[in-house]
């Protein structure tokens, strides 16, 4: 149950959002995990589970290619069973840009 912060109407749940039926105010649900997909190697699409970034280790040496500041959360996933190495992901602590590095 969630009430619209703007007009106080009970909001409807729709997919990943709460939507106010009265003023159309839209809010993302407050779950700590968001699932999004990323295209990898053109054809193979995998689902990446976005972590609770506050729990992830931070690499202070890595420089964000987007904002050129240093510091990024990192984690790794196994892209395919065995035949490919781990794919390492970084998420910039400054601008939130996410990128990946192949081992
Ligand atoms: Zn509203
Ligand atoms: Zn950045």
TrEMBL record:
Which segments does the record annotate as C4-type zinc fingers? 4-23
One record GO biological process: regulation of DNA-templated transcription
**Which residue ranges does the record assign to the TFIIS-type domain?**
60-100
Positions that bind Zn(2+) 2: 64, 67, 92, 95
Q: Which family does it belong to?
A: Belongs to the archaeal rpoM/eukaryotic RPA12/RPB9/RPC11 RNA polymerase family.
Is Phosphoprotein tagged as a keyword? Answer: no
Entry protein name: Transcription factor S
- Protein source organism: Nanobdella aerobiophila
Transcription regulation keyword on record? yes
Q: Which SUPFAM superfamilies match?
A: Zinc beta-ribbon (SSF57783)
Q: Which InterPro entries match?
A: Rpa12/Rpb9/Rpc10/TFS, TFS, Zn_ribbon_RPB9, Znf_TFIIS
Residue positions binding Zn(2+) 1: 4, 7, 20, 23
UniProt entry keywords in alphabetical sequence = Metal-binding, Transcription, Transcription regulation, Zinc, Zinc-finger
PANTHER family (UniProt xref): DNA-DIRECTED RNA POLYMERASE (PTHR11239), DNA-DIRECTED RNA POLYMERASE III SUBUNIT RPC10 (PTHR11239:SF12)
The source's superkingdom equals Archaea
**GO-annotated molecular function:** DNA-directed RNA polymerase activity; nucleic acid binding; zinc ion binding
Q: Which Pfam families match?
A: Zn_ribbon_TFIIS
């Amino acid at each position: 149950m969630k009430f619209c912060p703007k007009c106080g109407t009970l909001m409807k749940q729709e997919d990943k959002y709460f939507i106010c039926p009265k003023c159309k105010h839209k809010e993302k649900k407050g779950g700590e995990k968001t699932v999004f997909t990323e295209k990898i190697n053109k054809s193979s699409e995998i689902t990446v589970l976005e972590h609770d970034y506050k729990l992830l280790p931070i690499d202070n040496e890595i420089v964000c290619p987007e904002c050129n500041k240093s510091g990024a959360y990192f984690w790794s996933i196994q892209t395919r069973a065995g035949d490919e190495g781990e794919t390492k992901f970084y998420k910039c602590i400054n601008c939130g840009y996410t990128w990946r590095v192949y081992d």
